[in-house]
Every structure is written in structure tokens, then in C-alpha cells.
Amino acid sequence: MTRMTDPFDALQSFQQALVDGEIDLQRGQIDPELFVHLDHPNGQPRFTYVRLQRQTVTAMVNFAISDPIEGVRCFQIGVAVPEAYRSQRRAKCTVGAAITELQHGLARNKVSTFYVEAVVGIDNEASKHVAAATISTTPVEVTDQVSGLPALHYVRKIGEVAAG
């Protein structure tokens, strides 16, 4: 049976590449305890933000280019936390810090508005909780394009002041 894309697979690969010295990390400009790695799989930029304990990744957030929404750049987000570090608010804190760092970095390149989105399996309670706390409390039910399984689509526009 096909399964949904699991960001934990990316965390394991990233962790191994970090240990092997294949990844260069830069400290966050807003949060110096957050590290970022930029690469270009398939020719598209991907930003990976991690929190570390020495050489161990304790939380990871990926931002990969996705289809634009309303003509505005969109990043699909993937979040992973190793089992030993779960239930400590690491995912929520790291997602929030990573969005702030991404916003700061894109603003330097004259990108003031963008979307972040997450597609979460309907039965993934932990990820639904993180997405609701950091992206949107009003997800839309969808079918995951990779697995064909039921999922929730969370979307948030970053950089535009909300009307009040």
C-alpha cells in the first residue's frame, strides 16, 4: 500500500549527511539556536531548518517550493521530530521559528508575501495538532496526491497584515 510522504525519512537522511560532514549549516539570523541548510533538489530551492543537540537533530522543518496560490509563491512544509524528543513542544516552536527565519530571509530578496501549506494524514493526530497551532485552524479535507489517502490541507499566508 502506498503511504503518504513521511518527513521523518528526510530527517534520517539529513541526520546521516550531517554526521558524515556533507551538510553545511548556517545559524539563524533571528534565532541563533536554529540552523538552516539550503539545497536545490530538482533545481528548486529547499530550506531545511533544524534544532540540534551537538550533532543530533532534535527537530526539523523543510520548506519546498509548491504550486503558487493566487499567483503567490507557496512552500510545502514538512516537520519531523525524533521519537526521543517528542511531546516537548519542539515541533511547534521549531515551525514558528523557521517561518520567521524564512520570512526574514525572503524579505532580503524582496519577497514580502508567501504561503506555507501542509498536507497531513487524517489519522496523524500529532501533526494535525502542530499544523493547527502553527498554520491554520481551518484545514480543508483533501486526498493526498502521493498515496490517495484522506488528508487535511492547511494553508497560511505569511507577510500580509490581516484586516481587522
Please tell me about this protein's structure.
The chain is an alpha+beta fold and 164 residues long. The protein has three helices and eight strands. It has helices at 7-19, 90-108, 125-134, and strands at residues 26-27, 34-39, 46-53, 56-69, 72-80, 114-121, 140-143, 150-158. Strands 1-2-3-4-5-6-8-7 form an eight-stranded mixed sheet, with helices on both faces. A hairpin with a 2-residue loop joins strand 3 (46-53) and strand 4 (56-69). Helix 2 crosses helix 3 (125-134). The longest helix has 19 residues, at 90-108. The protein is globular. The mean pLDDT is 93.
Q: What order do the helices and strands follow?
A: HEEEEEHEHEE
Q: For the largest sheet, list the strands in their spatial order.
A: 1-2-3-4-5-6-8-7
Q: What structural category arises from helix and sheet content?
A: alpha+beta
Number of strands: 8
Describe how the helices and strands are arranged:
Layout: H1 7-19, E1 26-27, E2 34-39, E3 46-53, E4 56-69, E5 72-80, H2 90-108, E6 114-121, H3 125-134, E7 140-143, E8 150-158
Parallel strand pairs: 5-6
Antiparallel strand pairs: 1-2, 2-3, 3-4, 4-5, 6-8, 7-8
